[in-house]
What does this fold into?
Amino acid sequence: MSATEGVVIDEAAQKPPLTASVTQITKMLQVMEEQILPITGAGVAKGNKVFGAAVLDKDLNLTLAGTNSETECPMFHGEVKVIYEWSKIVPPSQRGAAAQSSVFLATHEPCCMCVSSILWSGFKEIFYFFPYSVTSAQGIPHDINTMVRIRKRSMMMFWYFCFLLFEVVDLCYLFRLGIPQMMNVSSLTVTVAFCFLFLF
Ligand SMILES: [Zn+2]
It folds into this structure.
C-alpha cells in the first residue's frame, strides 16, 4: 500500500527519527524550567499531576504553556490542556497552518490519548524529555498497563485458538476411528477450553 492510500506500512517511506541540536534542547529545557515548571508546581499543589506541555513557534519561542489539570477535567492531561487553551487563542481557520508551523513540547512521553490529541490538532513536530520508564516508576501510565493486559489477553486468545484447532483435528481423527469413549474425553477438553476462552 502506498502512502497516498492513507496508511504507511512501507518502512522506507517513514520519516527519519526527529533529532534536536544542543541549542534547541537548551531552549526547550529553558521553556520547561521558566514557563512549565512554575505552573506545574502550582497545579500539583492543587492536586494535579506533574506533567506539563507547551506550544512553541518554529524557533522554539513560547506560544503557550500548560500543565496537567485533572482536577478540572479528567482528560486535561498537560498536553490536552495546552491544546485546549491554544485553541482559544488561535481562530479555527488558522489552526491547521499554525499547528504545522509549531513545535509541540511535552515534559513526559505522551500517553495514547495525548498522542492522538496532538496529532489530530495538526502538530507535526513533537518533543518530550522523560520516557515512559520514568512515569512507570511512578505507577502512572494506566494506558500502558491496560495495553499490556490487552496484549497478554491477545496472546492467550492465540494459544486457545491453537488449542481448539488441535482439538478439532483431534475430534475428526477420533470420529474416523469411531472410539466414542475417547471422543467424550476430547469433547470435555473442548468444553473446558471454551470456558477458559470466555472466562479470560
Ligand atoms: Zn496524556
In short: The beta strands are 52-56, 62-67, 103-108, 125-130. The radius of gyration is 25 Å. The chain has two domains: 3-140, 145-199.
